[in-house]
Each structure stands twice: as C-alpha cells, then as structure tokens.
Design a protein that fits this description.
The chain has about 260 residues and is an alpha/beta fold. It contains seven helices and nine strands. Strand 3, helix 4 (about 130-135) and strand 4 (about 140) form a beta-alpha-beta unit. Helix 1 packs parallel to helix 3, helix 2 runs antiparallel to helix 3 and helix 2 (about 25-55) crosses helix 4 (about 130-135). The longest helix has 30 residues, at about 25-55. The protein starts with a helix and ends with a helix.
Length: about 260
C-alpha cells in the first residue's frame, strides 16, 4: 500500500514536470524541487507510521529507498552507474562521495544495501518527518561546530562499523559545492577507515551543471548524470601516518574521474 501511494504521487509529478516546455526551465526548476519536497514529506509520513511499529533498524533505510527512487523518477532523473560489475556486494566498505546537492542521495539508491548508514549534519534531525525517518533508519548525526562532540560521534561511528558490520557513507568535503570543483577533504572518513581497517570505496558523482544550475534556477530533466564506482577499493595500513597520503590519493582519484566526465581528459 505504501509503495502504491508513493508511485501514484510520482506519476502525477513526472507528468507535470515533463509537460512543461523546455524553454520554461525556471518554472520546471521550481516545480521539480517542490514536487521533490512533497514526495519526500508525504513518503516520510507514510513510512514513519510503519517504522514506529517496527522500531529503529538498518533495514528501514533499504525500504525507504523506494521514496528516493520515486523522487528521482518524478524529477526525470536517470542515473547511469559505472562499475557495478566490479562491485563486491559482500564486502564491507566506507564509501566516500563528493557532495554537490541534496539530490546526491538519489544517485546512491542502487549502491545502498543492508546494513548501511550515513553520517549527516545534526540540523537534519529537526527536519520534521524526514528527520524522524533518519532516526528510525539509524543515521548518524554529527555537529561539526562542536569539535569535542564531533570526535565523540566519530568514535561511536567506529564502534558501530566494527560491531554492526555496517557500510558507512560519508561526504569528505563536509558541505555541498555545486561549482563542479572539489572542496578540501576533511580527515574524518580516512581516520575512521584506518581505525576500523575497512577499505574505502570512492564514489564519484559527475558534475550536474549540464542539466542543473541552482544560481540561475535552470533544470532539464531526462538527462543522465553518471556515478563512477569503478575505482578499486583502497585498503589501509594500521599506520596513522598514512592518513594525509590517503587523503591526497583520493582527491587525485576524484579529480581524475570528474575531469573524465567533463571531457577534460
């Protein structure tokens, strides 16, 4: 029943988005993101009822990917993912992903598996039903403005990774950047990988600028945005001194993949 309601909402949404002429891109931009918000809020409210009876569980996040798939479908997004044929779905990973927009999560549905979690900023906890959904999906919240509490959260995350054998999704830039450039990487993800001895799997999401421009409020649905997961996992040494070299190596990998998608190499 839950899935049926969400899909009907998405059908109405995608019809509205696709019938808008291409030259009305600003109207399409606003309508698409309004519909994204509506589907997210309604979907969260529907699944929240189910999760309240079930209780917090990593499996809830896998169930909730249905809402994300509905969101990307109603926005006309069709992610093309490279590297799934080399992806070991039995291996535990710490995924590091570049962060451009809140729609990044729509690209990751096909990589999400149980048990998985993500480190998210504390403010998302208070986003109404969406924040409650994140709680019931056992997301990990971090307040970066408080260094001591942030370190405590990272220590707890390391324990969860080892105890519950979860896959952890992290955005090493720490904030969104929609210019197509990489922000400096924070050390948390790499320190966590060394501490837990879990391999890092880089995931590179190509630049959205070909179909999405937030500054000019332009959006063209139906275009593909590739997600590159072809990079081999990075296995780590126990030596913490490798941390800075690991960060540099991953930055070069991300830059190389982004340059490929932009046609620079």
């Amino acid at each position: 029943m839950f899935t049926t309601i969400i899909w009907y909402l998405s059908l109405v949404a995608v019809t509205l988005v696709l019938v808008i002429p291409k030259y009305r891109s600003k109207l399409r931009y606003f309508l698409s993101f309004i519909l994204y918000g509506i589907v997210m809020v309604v979907g969260s409210a529907i699944y929240l009822v189910r999760f309240m009876f079930k209780g917090p569980s990593y499996s809830n996040s896998c169930d909730f990917t249905t809402v994300f798939r509905c969101c990307r479908w109603c926005m006309g997004l069709q992610p093309r993912i490279y590297g799934l044929d080399t992806y070991d779905d039995k291996q535990q990973y710490i995924f590091v992903i570049n962060h451009q927009s809140f729609i990044d999560v729509l690209s990751l549905c096909d990589l999400w598996r149980e048990p998985s979690s993500v480190i998210a900023k504390e403010v998302l906890r208070y986003f109404g039903p969406v924040g409650l959904i994140m709680h019931y999906c056992k997301m990990i919240f971090i307040r970066r403005s408080n260094h001591e509490k942030a370190l405590e959260v990272m220590r707890e995350a390391a324990e969860l990774v080892k105890r519950d054998k979860i896959n952890l999704f992290m955005f090493p830039e720490g904030t969104r950047c929609n210019t197509g450039r990489l922000m400096p990487f924070k050390k948390g993800a790499f320190h966590l990988a060394i501490q837990t001895q879990i391999p890092i799997q880089p995931i590179v999401i190509s630049c959205y600028n070909k179909f999405l421009n937030h500054s000019e409020r332009l959006y063209s649905p139906g275009l593909f945005h590739p997600v590159d997961g072809t990079a081999s996992p990075v296995y780590l040494s126990f030596k913490v001194t490798l941390q800075n070299n690991l960060i540099v190596a991953n930055r070069f990998l991300f830059i190389d993949s982004l340059s490929y998608f932009l046609g620079l190499i």
